[in-house]
Amino acid sequence: MNWIFLILLIPGIYFGLASLYQLILALASHSYQTIPQPKDVPSKKSWVLVPAYREDAVILYSVSQNLQVIKNHPSWKLAVIADQLQEDTITQLEKMGAEVIRVSFDKSTKVKALNAALGSPFSERDFDLLVILDADNVMDSSFVKEAEKNAALGFRVIQGERLASNTGKPIELLDALSEKANQELLCKGANQLGLSSKLTGSAMVLDFALARKVMPQLQAVGGFDKELELWLTSHREYIRYAPEIQVWDEKVRSHEAFAKQRGRWLESQYTFFKKSIGPAFKSLFSGNVDYFHKSLQLALPPRALAPIGIQAGFISSLLLGSSLLSAIFFFSFLALALSYLIVLPSSLWAQHWKTILVAIPRLIGAAFQALTWMRKSKGQFLHTSHQATES
């Protein structure tokens, strides 16, 4: 029985530490206080970059909305990085007033698209800020004002909040709840502990000179946000989370899309954990706790599968008759559940709790399916298609 105990003890410790960490972040997020805003906020020359790979279905709507947001700010420009967009789409984008940077790659990635844009003649205009959006993102009307305020405070890397533009289907609602939990825990909670926020790949505002320095260093096929946050923290660049900088973001519309997207995310997460943990551990001895924390964060279990793993461990512990293991798994589940109750406002789920309960089994199935997509995403970028949604 001793070897079975040891086999269960390892995941017990893993889930226990992960759940405790998540609970600490949840508690920290509730002590969040906004930073005093500066009195004088100078206008910033800013470039909004929108990588668009086969995004004809959404790009016209999102760009038209975003151009409206920046139309009263002449120092702000918007460019679409057009990768395999239709000619008619490109023509309409140019008529709207958007800059279009045409790109073509044997294997398309977001990193390649961004580097192509930053190496184009359009980039030679002494910009102060670089804003990165996804093709479906629509900036909130206050985006420019809030971005410039945070930049005026001296922050060089800022992660905004992504709000769900669609929550009509159960899978969309669950995806929105997952995003909200991520932002409260890994962005807001981490900042409150003095650590860098997680990056989400869009709604990001960067110092332009810094962006031009770091982007050529990146090579990620998928998960470029993870590679970016590791580079930044390894170079002691702090990542600020600013929930007042908001964009509307489309949530996945099917379980198949969820599985494909999460598979891509998981593959990049664990790949970058393996690459970074050694250097991050060494940096700990030179006082770079932020980089070490960012690397360890990549070891967290998949959000949808963690409760299943904990419950399986608890049942196995009961069958084994180990009160110690049973207690470890029980308190792991309790900490995990409490963390979600703390960070997810009842206004987001109270009216839909029956729908959520019914939808969870299919979500878990999709989460297991995501594991099969991990290997496929290793050598190619798995694109998640979008549909136009009015925010």
- Poorly predicted segments: none
The first-level CATH class of the largest domain is given as Alpha Beta
CATH domain topology of the largest domain:
Spore Coat Polysaccharide Biosynthesis Protein SpsA, Chain A
Distance between the termini: 57 Å
Indicate the multimeric state. single chain
Helical residue percent band: 55-70%
Using the alpha-carbon principal axes, give the shape: globular
Mean pLDDT: 92
Order of strands, main sheet, comes to 3-2-1-4-7-6-8-5
User: What would you say the CATH architecture of the largest domain is?
Assistant: Alpha-Beta Complex
Gyration radius, in Å: 21 Å
CATH superfamily of the largest domain: Spore Coat Polysaccharide Biosynthesis Protein SpsA, Chain A
The assigned structural class equals alpha/beta
Topology:
Elements: H1 2-29, E1 46-53, H2 56-70, E2 76-83, H3 87-96, E3 99-103, H4 110-118, E4 129-132, E5 138-139, H5 143-152, E6 157-164, H6 170-192, E7 204-207, H7 208-214, H8 224-234, E8 240-249, H9 255-284, H10 289-297, H11 306-320, H12 323-343, H13 346-349, H14 353-376
Parallel strand pairs: 1-2, 1-4, 2-3, 6-8
Antiparallel strand pairs: 4-7, 5-8, 6-7
Summarize, please.
This protein is an alpha/beta fold and 391 residues long. It has helices at residues 2-29, 56-70, 87-96, 110-118, 143-152, 170-192, 208-214, 224-234, 255-284, 289-297, 306-320, 323-343, 346-349, 353-376; strands at residues 46-53, 76-83, 99-103, 129-132, 138-139, 157-164, 204-207, 240-249. It has an eight-stranded mixed β-sheet, sandwiched between helices.
Give short descriptive properties of this protein.
single chain, 391 residues, alpha/beta, Spore Coat Polysaccharide Biosynthesis Protein SpsA, Chain A, 2 domains, 8-stranded mixed β-sheet, 14 helices, globular
